[in-house]
Structures are given as C-alpha cells and as structure tokens.
Amino acid sequence: MQYELVLLTFLPLLGALAIVFTPKGAERLQRLAALATTLVVAALGVRLFLAYGDSASDPGRFLFELPWFSLPSSYGADTAVNFKLGLDGVSLLMVTLTAVLMPIVILSTWGHVHKRVKEFMVWMLVMQTGMLGTFLALDLVLFYFFWEISLIPLYFLIGIWGGERRLYATVKFFLYTLAGSLVMMVAIIWILWTRGTSDVFELINILCRAPLEEQLWLFVAFALAFGIKVPLLPFHTWLPDAHTEAPTSGSVVLAGVLLKMGTYGLVRFCIHMLPGAAIEAAPVMMALGAIGILYGALLAWAQDDLKRLIACSSVSHLGYVVLGLFALTPAGINGGMLQMVNHGISTGLLFLLVGMVYERRHSRALDAFGGVAVAMPLFALFWVITTLSSVGLPGLNGFVGEYLVLVGAFQASPLWAIVGLSGVIFGAVYMLMATRRMLFGALDKPENRELTDLNAREIGLMLPLVVLVVWLGVSPNTFMAKTQPSIELVNLRIAEARRAALAGLDAAPTAPATQREESAR
Amino acid sequence: MNASVLKTLFSDAAYAALAPLFALGIGALAVLIAGLFPIGKVARGALVLLTLLAAAALNVGLLLGDSVPGVVLDGTFVADRTTAMWGVIFALGVGLAWLFSRHYYDEDASHQNEHDVLMLASALGMSLMAGARDLIVFFIGLELLSIPLYALAAFRRNRAKSVEAGLKYFLLGAFAAGFFLYGSALIYAVSGTLRLDVFADPASRAKILESPMALVGVAMLTGSLFFKISVFPFHLWVPDVYEGSPTPVTGLMATGTKAAAFAFLLNALLALPSSTSTSLALIALITMALGNLGALVQQDVKRMLAYSGIAHAGVVLLGIAGAVAGDPKQGGAVQAALFYMAAYVATAGGAFGVLALLERDGERMTTLEGLKGLGQRRPYLAAALTVFMLSLAGIPATGGFLGKWMVFSVAVRAEMIPAAVVGVLLSVVALGYYLRVIIAMWMQEPGEESPLASTRAIALPATLASAACVALVLVMGLAPRWFLDHM
C-alpha cells in the first residue's frame, strides 16, 4: 500500500485532467466530478489519519521514494534528488485538513461560481495536489517544486473569479510570495551543494551541527519565504487584498491551508532543521508574532468590510501560531500546531459564512446589515458558534490552541505572552462587535428582511466543520496524540541545541539524536 | 602540404566530427537546387525536415556513442559531447523556426525556398561556431549564421519595419564582425596563433595578457560576442530588430543565435583570469536589470520578449561569471548553460511561434491588448503560451525553472551569493511582465482592439511544433534526468 501517498497527492491532478476533457457546457458534470474526486481524496486522507500511529499499521505505508534526478554536489558523487513523500506527525494534521476541507470548498462553489466552471474546478484540484505535495514532500527540491507550483492555481482563482481589484491583488500575492521563495531557493542550492543530500530527514540530522553563523543565514532565507506566506508582520500587506478579492472558496483554501504552508515550513525547516538558529532568532520571531496578534486585531477592529475584517483577524490568529512555535517549549509548539488546524477550520467557516451572506445580500459592508438573526436564524446560529470558536471560548477548538500557545509563550517570555494575551481580548472585541452589528439590532433595512436562510447544502457542508470545532475543543487528544511523537523529536532537537549553546559549542557532536545521522550518511 | 598533414586533416575522426555539418551543408544545397524544379511545397518541406533530422540524429549519435572524435582539423574544431548537444539544440531551434514559418508568409510565399535555404545555412553556421576552437573558424561560422539572418530579418520586404530591422541588424552586425576580426588580429600579433588553446594554459595566458595590445584584442572580441548574445552595453539593437523581423526569424535569432554565441563564449570566457569575474557578474546583473525593466513597460509582446531575452542572456552570463570565479564543479557551468539554453530554445522558440500564429490573424494581435480574452477564444494556444511564460519566469515543473536553478547554482558554488540573491530578486521583476501576458489571456475580457474569434484553423506543422515545445518544456522540468546526464 505504499502508493497510498502518491495516490492521495496526484488523484486531484488526475481529476483535473479528466475535467479538462469534459465538454464545454457540462457544468453539472464538472462540478460533480470535482466533488467526487475531492471526496475520494478526503476518504483516503481520513483513512491515513486513522491508520497513522496505529501500532498495527505498516510504517512503510507512510513513506514513498523514487529516484528522480541528480544535481552537482561538493562530494564526488552528485546529489540524488528523490521523489520522496512521507507522512509524519508534523504534516499529518495539515494533510488531513487539506483532504477534508476540499470537498467542502467545492460544494460551496455551487453558490458563487457561475462562470467558467470548468477552469475553476481544474484549478481547485491542481491546487490541492500542490498543497498536499508541499506538506508531504520529504525532499528539499521536491518541496520547493510543490511550494512554488501551488502559487499558480490561486493566482488564477483570484485573477479570474475575484472581485473588483482582483488583478492588483493577485499580482501582489504572487510577487510577494515569489520574492521570498527565491531567496529560499538560493539557500536550498547552497545546502545541496555543501551537504550533498536533499533528503529532509538526513538534513535535519546534518544541519543541526552546522556552525551557528551558517545556520542563521539559512534561517533568514527560509524564514523570509515562510514569513511572507504566513504572513508575518511586516510582510502581511498582501493578505487582506488577496482575501478580499478572492472568491469565497479561494479565501477558504487560502486561509485554511495555503497560509499553513508557511507555518508548516517554520516548524519543519526553521525550527527542526536549524534549531540553533531558531533559539537565537526566537526572541525576534516571538516579538513579530505577538505584535502581529495585537496589530492584526486592531486592524480587524477598524475594518468595515466583513471579509477584510476576517482577513485581518487571520493575521492576528497566525500571530499565535508563530508565537507558540517560537516559544520553543513543548506546550508552545503543540499549541502552535493545533492552532494551525483551528485557524483553518474557524476562519474557513467564517469565510464560508461571509460568502453565503454575500451571495444573498451582495454586500459585505457591516453597515449594510443589522438584525440579520431575525431573517436568518440558522445562519446566526452557525455564525455565533464560529465566532465563539474563533475568539477561543472554552469547550470549542480555539481555546485549547490559544491556551497552550500562551502557556508556552509565558514560559519563554512573559512580556510577549502578555502582549499576545491582550490580543485575545481585542479578538473578542472585534468579533463580537461585528456579530452585534450584523446579526442583532433593528432589522431596519428592507433588503435584509428578504434574506432567505441557509439551505440544506449550505448547512450540510458546514456541519462537518462544526463537528470538528466541538471535537477539537472537547477532546483535542484525538489529534494531539498522533502528532506527539514527532513533536517530541523537534523538542529533543531544541533541547540538544540549547545544551550545546550552553556548553559554548556550535553544536553537540555527541548528542544522542545526531548519532543516527552517521549511519544515514 | 605533405601527405601526412592531409591524412590528419582528413582522418576518419574528422569526417565523423564533421558529419552533422556535412548533412546541413548538403541539405542546404539540395534545397537550393530543388528550388529550380517544380517539385511542390510538401516535397521541399520534407527535404528541409530531413536535413535537420539527419543533423540532429548524427549529433545524437555522437552524444550516445562510446567514443567521440574530439579535437580534429589540426586543433581548430572539436566534436565532443558538448558540441553534439549544442548541435541538437540548434537543430531544434532552427526546426521550430522553420515549422512556424511554413504558413507565416502570405505575400512573400514565393520566396519560401530561399527562406528555407537561409535557415539551413544559419544552422550550419551555428554548429561551426559551437565546435570552433580557432578564431577564424569561429568567424566563418559566425558569418555563415549572420548573413542569412540579415536577409531573413528583412524578408518581409514589403514592410518598412522588416526592412528597417534587417538594415539595423546588418549595420551593427557588420561593426561587430569588424571588431571581432580586428581583435583577432591584435591577439595574433601578440601570440602568433588564433587557437583558443593558448588561453587554456594559465602560464601562456598570463604572458599574452601582459601585452596591452592583446588586452585590447580580448576586449574587442568580448564586445563582439556580447553583441551577439545581447548583453549590456551591446544590447540596444535587440528590441527594434526583434520587433521588426518576421516573427519566426525573431524566434531563430532569440534562440539559435544566442545559443551558438554562448556555446563559443563558454570556451572563450572560461579562459579569462578569475579577476574578471566581478566585472562579468556586474555586467550580468546590469543586463538582467535593464532587460527586465525594459520589458516591464512594453505593450507589444514581441518587444517584451526581446527585452526578456536580454535578461535571460544576463542570467547565463552570471553563470559564466561564477565559472570564471572558480566553480569547484568541473564542467558545471557548461552543463548549466546547455540546460538553460536548451530549455530557453524550446520555450522562447515556442513563444515566438505562438505569436507568429496569432499575428497571421491580424496585425495587432501581438500587443497585450490583442491577447485579451485569448483563453476563451483559443484555449489550447493560450495554454501553450501560458506554459511558455511560466517557463520563462522560471516556475517549477518547467524546464526554465531547472535551468535557472542550475545557472544560479554555479554562482552559489563560486560563493557569489550576493550576486545570486540580487539575480533571483531581479527575476521577480521579470515575473511582473510574464504575469501580464497571462492576465491578458485569461483574466481580461476581449477589448475593442482585440480581433474577433478567428475561425481559421492552425496549420498542422505549427500545431505539432507548439505541442512539441510544450512537451519538451514540461519534460525538462519534470523528468530532466536524461538531459542532466547527457549535458
């Protein structure tokens, strides 16, 4: 069954190819084909999730490797670049989220994608392959391949189906992200040349012993690419534009998964691969994360456009992820990883809801609403649940992640934890204000009286996510138990680097975790 | 000349080495003669195609064979695997230009025969340039390439722009040729030889370069070659000539000429002392900046691709600069340049080809305005052009990406990291204009200036050529192993 990962990654691409060859007008067929493909992928993803960490399951199932080509290296032989996919605790939740979110997104397009349906579905499916590949790639070159390829579909999705200023937004998005990626490319070239391997796990063993100065340079190059993607202050300005102009489904994927490619990269490469540099850079990164939380919250507070508000709240929520990850404590990293999933679900839901109300009202300005709860009680129910999840009400998913992040951050730096904590308050302020202005108050605008409530499709597509919101809130261990062993390895690496830094060495050559590397080389 | 010299000159190895050149020469003559007889367009076309295929096959034979002839003709010509790979690339470039030219000319169709002969002659010139290890042999190749191109640039003689392009190219090309010969003469005066191998040995190189006369000579040679590859400050002719020339010819200039000049330049520049690497890198970066910034403001896609071609030449030059600075990987720069140019020939050749197809539909189609909404009217053509744009921009899954990767690798290996970082950031600027083409095709509705949907079907040769380009670009990006192993 070792082809499961390949199947998971490339099934969407196959579906996209199939849709390319459907007749031009057959929109229903194209929609259903896309939905069927993503449903199969989701089923595969859930199966893998359930099997992962199960002692009875074959570990080879989660790894796939094929020789691909080779590039020059400073060792006599060339560096073998392999087509290596693998699932571990760091990528598990992201892969599952990507698989599960996509059918929901496709189903949501029934309401808002009416032109050029065929192309839309093709790009959506191509994007899924790009995202899954990015999370699963365990070869640095392959990772970079998928990382850049996944830009193109969103570029088209925003550019063709976006709002008024879509061209500006989509070019800005593309150029910003690419600028960061290309610096990372130079770093990857350097690693390949000097280390003679592009295998991520091997490099994790090798690079932690690199001199601190080299680690720091590499860290800067990687963090720039990932920081722009996350987006981390001060590189966040592309995000509100991209979100505002993107079609609903594009926003959901962007917030739900694409941004997580950045935070995933931070964990996998900046922290796990370069722990020494991560320790050095942690104060800066925590500061950026904490200021991002506060700044994003204030930005969101000032917005009048619902979609822009949620986009700014994304900046704030991703600040938690970065704050938690770079606390470099077990609680912080666990919380950061969980918060990645939480943000994907809650913000995804929020964008879906905004999309639904926009389809009916054709406005996203907060002033245009008021008393919508009377006209759309079911919508109001979903909105309130999602809002509460987003602001971190205990019992729902947001709470667990934020709590762990703040505990972790407090252990590392009380100052930034307190700054981050204030973001929680502002978060509640702007979300609840938005809720009040939209749902409650007088139903004084005639257009709002005629709004129809959610239909069965809309409820059906959101239900799985709402279930997850509660599940993650009540029993986060279902998910964290699976990721725990891998995060433990990250923690081990950090502890090792700390000891080495204390001992005044660049790295600890005798530390236990680095010994495995010798046999690997 | 006694018998033993003749024997070495005309040895079996020499024939094997020159076989691809013979094929091209004989083919060109055969097509010329065939023009005297009314044998029909298809038969003549088959003859051209056969010639190119024969040349390519002979080169592939050299590439895959157990042994290569190596240096022949008294050290003036080399036929190794690199030359053979260049030969394949040239055959590809000329073949593409020729396929796209098949239905391009309306009013000048009666001279199609001469057109084809000129194209084959230019292919012969390119192959000679790539293998030359002697300045005079190189010069013969250069002229064999350039003179047909002057004529081809002005081939649409009813159009003022085409004639202007031909004249401009000819005048400046003549200056470049003059520079080359004068530079060669100066070097000969100092060193007593025109062979490149005197530069390969550091001791004799240092001795020659002590003389200011030789330095002037080297500078003149370099300037003349920079003219051919369109590198700062010898790049100004490119936009006008590229825009005015018939589009298939522009494609040939952009791909074949540049590849041939690089093939020789790699040998010539690698003989330079490593102290020149900084200035080479600087020139490369300036070239990239000027090319990219120039392209950013163009409305005409042909002109835009001309500027983008300047930028691409800068990228390869950066790789060469890295190699001059001391690339620890033996032959790494040659491999990188070969891969880059192979990908560029397929990409730019295909892009100019698609533009040639569009141009037939109406005069203004090659502007951004004219491309608006192309995705709706001609989805396959627009998809092909999209792939080419992404490859030019160096996005993964295309050959352009791996080419960029390898060329920048040379710079990184030579520890020219700042130059590499500036270089990659300049390629972000490049993305700005490649994206605009994609935007026009897919994201904008047809404007008033965009011609209506054409019902004219695209001819078979052009369809095949575009499909082949797309396939090649993707194969080089996704499964590059064969190319990497043979370059």
Question: Can you give a write-up of this model?
Answer:
The complex is a heterodimer of chains A (521) and B (487). By secondary structure, chain A is mainly alpha-helical. Chain A has one domain (4-520). Helix content of chain A is 76%, strand content 3%. Chain A has 22 helices and two strands. Chain A has helices at 4-20, 27-51, 89-112, 117-136, 140-149, 151-161, 166-195, 200-207, 212-229, 238-245, 248-271, 275-302, 306-327, 330-361, 372-375, 377-391, 397-412, 414-439, 446-449, 456-474, 477-502, 512-520, and strands at 63-71, 79-86. Chain A has a two-stranded antiparallel ribbon with strand order 1-2. In chain A, a hairpin with a 7-residue loop joins β1 (63-71) and β2. In chain A, α2 packs antiparallel against α3 (89-112), α3 (89-112) runs antiparallel to α20 and α13 (306-327) packs antiparallel against α18. The longest helix of chain A has 32 residues, at 330-361. Chain A is globular. Chain A starts with a helix and ends with a helix. Chain B has 487 residues and is mostly helical. Chain B has a domain at 273-487. Chain B contains 22 helices and two strands. In chain B, strands 1-2 form a two-stranded antiparallel ribbon. In chain B, α5 runs antiparallel to α6. The longest helix of chain B has 32 residues, at 160-191. The radius of gyration of chain B is 22 Å and the shape is globular. Chain B starts with a helix and ends with a helix. The mean pLDDT of chain B is 85.
